[in-house]
Design brief:
alpha/beta, GIY-YIG endonuclease, Rossmann fold, binds adenosine-5'-diphosphate, binds zinc ion
């Protein structure tokens, strides 16, 4: 049968559909909460034209036919007409919220990260997009066909006739307000026409989405050095081949990786395609954005501070294909670019690319999936690649590109260690800054340079202890030592924000000489001000940077030279490019070294290497002093030599021996509850089920625990962890999903499964 020409404005179903009467149109609907499995609904003929996968629908659920909202994920003609199916009530969106490709990506995430599909969809599609933030419901008036035909013969009062005439003449959808204004009447004649059935009204959602201020690109590309040229050539080749490939750029700090990303993006734009650039949230500064804007003009920025309206606006712009470059944090990996050409992940080793609530996805893995499905390259860059990515490049899954030189062949800074333990006496007398560090600071400042000091702990004292009875002041909810914040005169829990006034006597024995010990950034600031009273010093940590924009203000002061000593937590360790910094001091390199986390050494190596990279960025050169109790530790030894390969070479065999990632897959389960006994019992039940399922499968499963988590109590809940490991190829996810399908935790107990965990605490 020849198919009838499809008329867009045709409201009648086309003929061929009537012939296929026994076939029913069935939609698969994913519900946001509760149920994990999608449900099938039949689609009434009246809704058929407007329904497509990616739009939301309202459907009846359960015995009471409660009305719920779900996502339509598939539509097909169903031959089994006798299957009893409920009908969809309404289609809620006038456009699809997700493309078929992104829909498949969310399906994969649900499966891989053990998260209900509906919850993944709710995460991927921003709330502002779902609610249509910044748009409003508007009434539009139309004239029915039969009225059009007889309009000439109608006898109407003058105002009503004028209003009808205006509507008949108007080609675009018109609101009552517009009619009233054009005709010079009140709403009354319009209401009268509506009552007589001579006009119809229809409510639709319209956007107030205005065009983005266009900014003309002003900056030309830089002339690249040979390393940059070689790196770009590899990417160009991959882009032109039009196939998926992951390229890992291992480039030392200041090697000019961003320039390479930008020139690759230019190529992608010349194909009429878009690029997504993911950067850690903390690096998403106005400077970073300005760098891309000045090169490309229109750049959409997605960060966590956007209001619903702004986010919806950005999302619509991106979906329209009018924005060539999207820069954003983790969730920008879901940006609805219609013709994606490249994904870039800068600082790919950063842990903030992993989401710490469900779905617990890693943006790098999701990007890999998306890039592979869209047949485009994924570009990863870092001075300290994650061992996962590095191992993949060694195994030939990723293409490795090295950029071992800084721009203009500037030398990397010299790094020396200061043994804290041999200076113990000294240190007690003088605080956190050793004599050598003090002298180096004085010298750098005297020569007109600037100084960065890293201490990865905030607060004044990291614990408060009674020297008489030994009692340490702990959080009643978390059992973690409280940190003394002197300015606020509080003892604060850094996990749940529990706070009490700083005590002046021991709660246990009443002794009044409490000892406030352990170094935090607040105390360090105090010490720096005492040592260098004539210098402006600025502290950057989450306590001082709470106000929006404070981060930028602080960096601007440092850039201007108004402030010459910048101290802070890891917030200052990354990405900053200040040519005048000639000295970096690491107050204590060991803060992360002894955490019960198999990545402790990797974190330490990354942190020291990254903060060292903040200096020596101009011809003035620079050097780094690292205070540590373990100057011989391999992670610190490798960091002071800027020797990533040496670090990886020492660390990877250790991982391999224990089958830790990247040599195996890992899944971590955390059970928590208000009762220690109940939580432990449930954790034991879970682990027993999984152990049994493991034995029945052909997966070689290693199961550890349940054991109290390193943070055994948080926010009043006792926590138990189970660690599962298997070879890289085996899917622990599926085994856990099957083994735990029918298990319900007792009241008050919750459990989570974290696939490829990063947080081991
Ligand atoms: P990375 O991201 O590798 O740490 P950046 O991309 O931030 O390095 O580059 C470091 C500095 O060098 C920046 O100020 C950048 O503008 C500059 N730069 C990069 N490439 C060139 C080049 N080819 N010529 C001159 N300056 C460059
Ligand atoms: Zn607490």
């Amino acid at each position: 049968m020849p198919e009838k020409q499809h008329n867009l404005f045709d409201v009648e179903p086309p003929e061929w559909e009537a012939d296929a009467a026994e076939e029913r149109c069935v939609a698969t609907v994913v519900l946001p909460t509760g149920l994990t499995r999608p449900l099938d609904y039949s689609v009434p003929d009246t809704l058929r034209a407007e329904l497509e996968p990616g739009r939301r629908v309202s459907v009846p659920l359960g015995r009471g036919n409660r009305s719920v909202i779900g996502y339509c994920v598939a539509i097909e003609n169903d031959k089994r007409t006798n299957r009893p199916l409920k009908e969809i009530d309404a289609v809620l969106d006038s456009q699809r919220l997700l493309s078929p490709g992104l829909l498949r990506l969310t399906e994969w995430m649900a499966d891989y990260y053990l998260c209900p599909w509906g919850q993944v969809l709710d995460t991927v599609i921003p709330a502002g997009v779902r609610s249509g933030a910044g748009t409003r419901l508007t009434t539009f008036l139309t004239v029915p066909e039969e009225v059009v035909a007889k309009s000439a013969s109608l006898k109407l009062p003058a105002k009503q006739a004028a209003a009808l005439k205006h509507l008949l003449a108007e080609a675009k959808p018109t609101t009552p307000g517009e009619v009233a204004e054009a005709v010079g009447c009140t709403q009354a004649p319009i209401t009268a026409l509506r009552r007589k059935g001579l006009i119809q009204s229809e409510v639709r959602r319209v956007g107030s989405v205005d065009a983005q201020e266009d900014q003309a690109p002003v900056e030309p590309h830089l002339k690249m050095n040979p390393d940059q040229t070689a790196a770009l050539a590899v990417i160009m080749e991959s882009l032109r081949r039009g196939q998926h490939e992951t390229i890992l750029i291992h480039g030392v700090t200041g090697s000019g990786k961003t320039e390479v990303y930008m020139q690759a993006i230019s190529e992608v734009i010349s194909y009429g395609r878009q690029a997504i650039v993911l950067v850690p949230e903390i690096s998403l500064t106005p400077q970073t954005v300005a760098r891309f804007r000045s090169r490309f003009g229109r750049v959409a920025v997605l960060h966590s501070h956007l209001s619903d309206v702004e986010r919806h606006r950005q999302w619509s712009h991106i979906a329209s294909g009018n924005v060539p470059v999207v820069v954003g944090a983790r969730s920008a990996v879901f940006a609805p670019t219609p013709q994606l050409g490249l994904i870039v992940i800068d600082e790919e080793h950063e842990t903030s690319f992993k989401q710490d609530s469900a779905p617990r996805y890693h943006a790098r893995e999701v990007a890999e999936r998306r890039a592979s499905a869209e047949g485009i390259p994924l570009l990863l860059g870092s001075a300290t690649p994650s061992l996962e990515s590095y191992a993949r490049s060694e195994a030939g899954h990723y293409r490795l590109v090295e950029m071992p030189q800084r721009i203009f062949n500037r030398p990397l800074p010299t790094v020396a260690t200061i043994d804290l333990c041999s200076h113990r006496q000294d240190r007690h007398a003088r605080g956190a800054i050793s004599r050598q560090l003090h002298n180096a600071m004085a010298e750098a400042l005297r020569d007109g340079g600037q100084v960065i000091l890293l201490l990865n702990r905030r607060g004044f004292s990291t614990h408060i202890q009674c020297p008489s009875c030994g009692e340490v002041l702990r959080c009643p909810e978390c059992e973690i030592a409280l940190t003394h914040h002197r300015k606020k005169q509080l003892a604060l829990c850094h996990y749940c924000d529990h706070q009490t006034p700083a005590p002046d006597r021991c709660a246990a024995c009443g002794f009044t000489g409490l000892r406030f010990s352990g170094q935090g950034t607040e105390r360090l600031e105090d010490e720096v001000r005492r040592r260098f009273p004539d210098e402006n010093c600025l502290r950057m940590d989450t306590d001082t940077m709470q106000r929006r924009g404070s981060h930028e203000e602080a960096l601007a002061k440092f850039r201007d030279g108004e402030v010459r000593i910048l101290l802070g937590t890891q917030m200052i360790a990354k990405g900053l490019d200040f040519p005048n910094v000639t000295l970096v001091g690491v107050i204590n390199a060991d803060t992360a070294l002894h955490l019960p986390d198999f990545r402790a050494a990797e974190r330490t190596f990354q942190l020291v290497t990254q903060v060292a990279g903040r200096t020596g960025r101009s011809e003035r050169g620079g050097h780094v002093l690292v205070q540590t109790c373990q100057p011989e530790h391999p992670a610190i030894q490798a960091a002071i030599r800027h020797d990533y390969v040496r670090f990886a070479g020492g660390e990877l065999p250790l991982r391999k021996a224990l089958r830790y990632p990247p040599f195996g897959s890992m899944l971590r389960i955390v059970v928590r509850g208000p009762s220690e006994v109940t939580a432990r019992e449930f954790a034991t039940t879970l682990s027993e089920r999984i152990r049994q399922a493991g034995e029945e499968s052909d997966i070689c499963l290693r199961l550890l625990g349940p054991a109290p988590a390193p943070f055994a109590k948080l926010r009043g809940k006792y926590r138990f962890a189970i660690q599962l490991q298997a070879s890289q190829e085996d899917s622990i996810s599926h085994l856990v999903a099957a083994a735990t399908e029918k298990i319900k935790p007792p009241d008050g107990v919750q459990w989570i499964a974290d696939v490829d965990p990063i947080d081991m605490m």
